[in-house]
Design brief:
The structure holds two protein chains of two kinds. Chain A is an all-alpha fold. Chain A has one domain. Chain A has six helices and no strands. In chain A, helix 2 crosses helix 3 and helix 5 packs across helix 6. The longest helix of chain A is centred in the last third of the chain and has 23 residues. The two termini of chain A are 17 Å apart. Chain B contains six helices and no strands. The chains are: A mainly alpha, B mainly alpha. At the A-B interface, helix 1, helix 2, helix 3, helix 4 and helix 5 of A face helix 1, helix 2, helix 3, helix 4 and helix 5 of B.
Chain lengths: 144, 146
């Protein structure tokens, strides 16, 4: 296997920042920093506090915008990705994270950090499903 | 500062850190995510290192954060379920399928909204639709961890 495009420095720094975000939100609000849970809670009609969830989402968008402006680079060089596939992927991610109670941040980072067996299992399942699909498509030349 | 204001500011600060981490690590780029998930081609291990670093920091930080009640709330809001049920397994598998298809998961898609491209907009609208359709099949929301 050829290793290509590995950026250990930014990956390490970015990961530390994500971990700090999780610790901060737990220490101050007592909440899990899971993007899908926060998103679902923000749009739910009845919930115990939507304001901090919208603030979190706004902060994440603002950080993405600030980084984009500061570097002058687009977030991705990808163009022409088929819209129906993108929409299907979004639907599956929304459906799956709702039924499975979490995503990469909630289960993958926060849940694993709490040593939750549910989150560890969920993380293994979505990692292997993601690797399976992407590798099948990759082997078929889809991403080329 | 009252607790409600504190919660909002804490949410904002955590969101900023979260989005900055995803931007710095380039996890907002779905091609970089797919370069990790696709093991059939040249492989980029960056995503694994991002998750490892985030999890190590969270594991250490939680040792302190989970000790007391939070600064701006009366209790910690932690998921209480511990059983491995069908929803957890099928939901996570469906999520993984969607993730491997386009390279976006919820956090990076939100942060990528700030990048100005169209992809995150379409993706997030579809994500919300999927979540709404799924709600009858899901547990009550308080079990959700993110």
């Amino acid at each position: 296997m050829t290793i290509s495009g590995f950026t250990p420095g930014p990956a390490l720094l970015g990961g530390v920042l994500i971990g700090l975000a999780a610790v901060l939100l737990m220490r101050l609000n007592g909440r899990i920093a899971g993007a899908s849970g926060i998103l679902n809670g923000a749009i739910a009609r009845t919930t115990d506090g939507r304001a901090w969830r919208w603030a979190f989402l706004l902060g994440a968008v603002a950080a993405g915008a600030l980084f984009h402006v500061a570097t002058g680079e687009p977030h991705t060089a990808r163009s022409g990705f088929p819209l129906p596939v993108l929409i299907m992927a979004g639907f599956l991610v929304g459906f799956g994270t709702r039924v499975g109670s979490g995503c990469t941040s909630g289960h993958g980072v926060c849940g694993v950090a709490r040593l939750s067996v549910r989150s560890i299992v969920a993380t293994l399942v979505f990692l292997f499903a993601g690797i399976g699909v992407a590798s099948l498509l990759g082997a078929a030349g889809w991403f080329a | 500062m009252n607790a409600a204001t504190g919660r909002v500011l804490a949410g904002l600060a955590a969101g900023l850190l979260f989005g900055l981490g995803l931007s710095v690590s380039r996890m907002v780029d779905p091609d970089k995510v797919l370069a990790f998930l696709n093991v059939a081609g040249p492989w980029d291990p960056s995503l694994a290192l991002v998750m490892l670093a985030a999890t190590v920091v969270a594991t250490v930080g939680y040792r302190f954060a989970l000790r007391d009640k939070p600064l701006f709330d009366e209790t910690l809001h932690l998921p209480t379920r511990s059983d491995i049920d069908a929803q957890l397994l099928t939901g996570s598998a469906v999520f993984g399928l969607g993730w491997g298809l386009a390279g976006y998961c919820p956090g990076p898609a939100v942060a990528a909204l700030g990048g100005g491209g169209e992809e995150p907009v379409y993706f997030l609208v579809a994500l919300v639709a999927g979540s709404l359709v799924a709600s009858p099949f899901a547990h009550r929301r308080h079990t959700h961890v993110g």
